[in-house]
Amino acid sequence: RHGRIAIAFTPDEEIGEGTKHFDVKQFGADYAYTVDGGELGELEYENFNAAAAVIKVHGLNVHPGEAKNKMLNAIRVAAEFDSLLPERERPEYTEGYEGFCHLMKIGGNVEEAVLEYIIRDHDREKFEAKKENMKRIAALLNEKYKLFLDEAVSLSIRDQYFNMREKIEPDNLFLIENARKAMTELGITPKISPIRGGTDGANLSFMGVPCPNLCAGGHNFHGKYEYVCVESMIKIYELLLKLSCLKPEL
């Protein structure tokens, strides 16, 4: 036997918009789980703090044959901005709780260039420090090139989501213990680790519905070899049934 069960499907999770129009009151649940993890047994209640940054670089274009002391090449200034970020704080050098600034896209010409980054860190202070460092670099380059333009570099940063751990510990850890208990009873080995990404559960947790993340049976996400294991999906179906019959708190 179980109480009322609420189920929702959220679109656009990968771009951080999955809960933008989510009606928590209509959903009517005090607690929830997202089913958005990886291999069987994954159980997560920590995720990155996340932001997106866009840097626009303005240059001055003149004939290259007459460019000395006149041209400001926006492409080169954009490359300089990226070079001033800590080299070891890139995705390809980080793991576990280590955060990063990831250059997602760069393009432009002599007169204008644009860089797009995502900023990630589990630690809120380190997350804020990464954003402040970007602001510092933008100010540094504006000072360096002020003889060419009043503002060669403009920066905008938008927060996307925060680490749900703030909303799970300590009052809602029973959600983790319930999931661990249900997995163990089904012969699934729980694997608790921080998410090196995010889920809609992060935003839902800050909207008043504490929402850890369960495995979904997927592997090799965001690549051409991504797949989901059917046998794992069946086991996760059994896990959800088991969870629905547990008391809300241990």
Model description:
It is a single chain. With 250 residues, the protein is of the alpha+beta class. It has 2 domains: 13-47 and 164-244, Zn peptidases (Aminopeptidase, 3-Layer(aba) Sandwich); 49-161, 2-Layer Sandwich (Alpha-Beta Plaits). 29% of the residues lie in helices and 20% in strands. It is built from 7 helices and 10 strands. The strands form 3 sheets. It has a 4-stranded mixed β-sheet, with helices on one face. A hairpin with a 7-residue loop joins strand 9 and strand 10. The longest helix is centred in the middle third of the chain and has 21 residues, at 124-144. The two termini are 17 Å apart.
Please name the fourth-level CATH homologous superfamily of the largest domain.
Zn peptidases
**Tally of contiguous helical segments:** 7
Spatial order of strands in the largest sheet: 1-8-2-7
CATH class of the largest domain: Alpha Beta
Class inferred from helices and paired strands: alpha+beta
How far the N terminus sits from the C terminus, by CA atoms, comes to: 17 Å
Q: H/E element string?
A: HEEEHEEHEHHEHEEEH
- How many strand units? 10
The appropriate CATH architecture of the largest domain is 3-Layer(aba) Sandwich
Number of structurally distinct domains: 2
**Estimated helix fraction:** 25-40%
Assign the CATH topology of the largest domain: Aminopeptidase
